[in-house]
């Protein structure tokens, strides 16, 4: 989108933000010599999709959202942005501040990892265990029953977060009790991961490599199982020293058998920096008030709670299913929403601009 140099178009007080993708009528504004602008609307899409001023000759123009245009976000069919002006300002601030001011906070399952591959659902951390031949049949049966009962509650747009939390705690506690009954050994986890179909989202390895190169702290929050998550990171060779995992970790007995879980329960609605108790990690965050937050659920929006203020938090959300039902809520919560995107292309594009 472009406007004449020095002009800011508000269109009668309306902010020119739009849901991206899809044609719309083109609006032109003619500026007569006496100055009052006259609007003309064409009935179909223009070649450029731009809103432009005309006054006899084509004026010199500048982009209204230059950074978003560089990123290719203004015409991408899978991208939704509710407030273009705010996101332009956020991204521009992150880019101009550079890597030294940046930290990244990311969910893991279906954010750093793929949802599906060639039409088949990929394993999450829980799914790796659920689908492993090393687990007894009764575990898979019971785990599937719990999934069928509680997952619809997790994603129900008609329920508030406060209403969902008790059910999520019930779900996690029951799964954890099942795991303890199975007497899972620590040494079996590597085999579970290597035999699973878990895959990183395309471009995740490149993103992790670049963030490690520039020493950017990466905090991975997961309501899954931390021991399995760490095995996945090792398996794909992305578990670098700038990355910290906050999740539910197993407690083992002397023989390496799971007998419980360490610390407080992490579920999808209490993931935030207040859950971190490592002073060493917070030392790394000094002066890093710019955040790129990546998540696939509405609960992930709060992961940056606890970041020192003032801060600039760019929230990028992956909307993987039930798009029509959940799109409005995702656009309200995330700055950029990516629909059925199995890549890290948008995130990598932002990071490349910072170089």
UniProtKB/TrEMBL annotation:
PANTHER family: 5'-NUCLEOTIDASE, 7-METHYLGUANOSINE PHOSPHATE-SPECIFIC 5'-NUCLEOTIDASE. Keywords: Cytoplasm, Hydrolase, Magnesium, Metal-binding, Nucleotide metabolism, Nucleotide-binding. The lineage of its organism: Eukaryota, Metazoa, Ecdysozoa, Arthropoda, Crustacea. It holds the Pfam family UMPH-1. It catalyses: a ribonucleoside 5'-phosphate + H2O = a ribonucleoside + phosphate. Signal peptide: none annotated. GO terms for cellular component: cytoplasm. Belongs to the pyrimidine 5'-nucleotidase family. One of its GO terms (biological process) is nucleotide metabolic process. It comes from the Eukaryota. Its main location: cytoplasm. Its EC number is 3.1.3.5. It comes from Penaeus vannamei (Whiteleg shrimp). NCBIfam families: HAD-SF-IE (TIGR01544). This is 5'-nucleotidase. It is found in: Cytoplasm. GO terms for molecular function: 5'-nucleotidase activity; magnesium ion binding; nucleotide binding. Residues 25-46 are annotated as: Disordered.
């Amino acid at each position: 989108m472009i406007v004449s140099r020095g002009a800011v178009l508000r269109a009668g007080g309306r902010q020119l933000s739009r849901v991206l993708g899809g044609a719309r009528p083109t609006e032109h504004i003619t500026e007569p010599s006496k100055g009052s602008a006259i609007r003309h609307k064409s009935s179909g899409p223009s070649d450029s999709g731009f809103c432009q001023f005309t006054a006899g000759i084509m004026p010199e123009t500048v982009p209204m959202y230059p950074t978003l245009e560089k990123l290719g976000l203004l015409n991408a069919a899978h991208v939704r942005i509710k407030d273009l002006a705010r996101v332009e300002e956020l991204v521009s601030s992150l880019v101009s501040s550079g890597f030294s001011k940046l930290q990244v906070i990311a969910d893991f399952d279906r954010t750093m990892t793929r949802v599906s591959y060639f039409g088949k659902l990929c394993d999450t951390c829980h799914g790796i265990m659920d689908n492993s031949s090393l687990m007894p049949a009764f575990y898979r049966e019971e785990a599937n029953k719990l999934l069928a009962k509680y997952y619809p509650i997790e994603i129900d747009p008609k329920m508030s977060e406060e209403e969902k939390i008790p059910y999520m705690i019930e779900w996690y506690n029951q799964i954890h009790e099942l795991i303890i009954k199975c007497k899972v050994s620590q040494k079996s986890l590597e085999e579970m991961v290597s035999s699973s179909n878990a895959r990183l989202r395309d471009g995740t390895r490149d993103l992790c490599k670049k963030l490690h190169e520039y020493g950017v702290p990466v905090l991975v929050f997961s309501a899954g199982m931390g021991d399995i998550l760490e095995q996945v990171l090792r398996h794909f060779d992305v578990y670098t020293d700038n990355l910290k995992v906050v999740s539910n970790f197993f407690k083992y007995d002397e023989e390496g058998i799971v007998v419980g879980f360490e610390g407080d329960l992490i579920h999808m609605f209490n993931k935030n920096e207040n859950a971190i108790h490592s002073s060493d990690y917070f030392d790394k965050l000094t002066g890093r008030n710019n955040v790129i937050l990546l998540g696939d659920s509405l609960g992930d929006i709060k992961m940056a709670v606890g970041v020192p203020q003032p801060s600039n938090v760019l929230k990028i959300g992956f909307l993987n299913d039930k798009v029509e039902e959940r799109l409005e809520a995702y656009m309200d919560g995330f700055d950029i929403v990516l629909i059925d995107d199995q890549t890290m292309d948008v995130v990598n594009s932002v990071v490349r601009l910072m170089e």
